[in-house]
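Running this now, will post back.
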Amino acid sequence: MRGGLEYSAMDKGKSNVCIQREERDMARTVKCGLIQCANALDTGESIQEIRDANLQRHIPFIEEAASKGVQILCFQELFTGPYFCPSQDPRWYELAEPIPDGPTIQLMSEYAARHSMVIVAPIYEKAMRGVYYNSAAVLDADGRYLGRYRKKHIPQVAGFWEKFFFKPGNEGYPVFDTAYARVGVYICYDRHFPEGARALGLNGAEIVFNPSATVAGLSRYLWKLEQPAHAVANGYFMGNINRVGTEMPWNIGKFYGTSYFCDPRGQTIAEAGEDGDELVMADLDLDLIDEVRNTWQFYRDRRPETYENLVKLLP
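Update: finished.
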C-alpha cells in the first residue's frame, strides 16, 4: 500500500516519481510549506561560516516539514546568506555557487530524495567567472535537478543595488513538472510585473512560489495585494516567502515575515507571523484551479492579438 492505494506487480518496475505523478493526477491535494528565517550569523563573519550557519538554521525546519507530510517546500530569496544588496561590496560574490553542482544544491538534493519532497532552493548563482544570477533551483521528490529560474526584473534603487550583483535572468518562465504539481517561480521584485506571472500561468503552473526579501516601508501594502491579484488573474495558487529580522550593518528596515499562501480566488489560506523563524504550511486543493477557471474564463477571453504594443520598445 502507498498513500492508501494498492499496487500491482506491474508497478514494481516504475520509479517512485512515476508512481507519485500517477497519485498526483488522482489525488489533487498537495501539502506545501514555506520557511521564513532571520539571517543566522553576523555579516562580518566569513562567507563560508555565514553559508553554513544559514543552512543549519533551515535544516530543522526541513525535518519538521518532512515529519508533517509536506510534499513541496520553498525557502526565502538568497536563503544561504543575508540580503546583501544594500552594500556594493564584491566580497559577497563569494556566496555564489554553481547550479546544480554547488554544495548547497547537492545537499538539498539529498534532503529532497530522503524525504520524497520537492524543494525549491533560492540561492546566489555563479554561472561563470564574473557572471552571477539571483536564482532558484527546483529539485524533484527523488532529488533530481529539474531546472532553475533566474530572476528577471532587477531593481537598482537606494538599499537595493541588485544590478551590482545580478545579471537579469535569461531563461524564460519555466514551469517544472514535479512529482506533486506543476510549479513555477517568480522572485521578489518580479512580483511587481504582471507579464511574467501571466507567462507562468500560460506555461501550465499550478503553484507559483515567490521567494522574497522585503522590508517595511513603501511597498509593504503591496505584499498582500499583488500576489493574490496574480493568483486571481491567472487561476493558480501562490506561496510567498519573506525573511524576518533586521540585518546589520545596513539596517534598511525590518524584514516583516508574514509569509503566506493564497488560492486562485485570492484568499489567504495560511500565514506566518511578522517575527521569528517559522514554517507555514497549507493543503492546496488543485481541483480548485479548474473550478475557478471554469467560472472566470480569463484564459478563454484573452485577446493576445490586441496586445502587440505591450512588447514594443517604448521610450
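The first strand starts at residue 29 and ends at 36. More later if anyone needs it.
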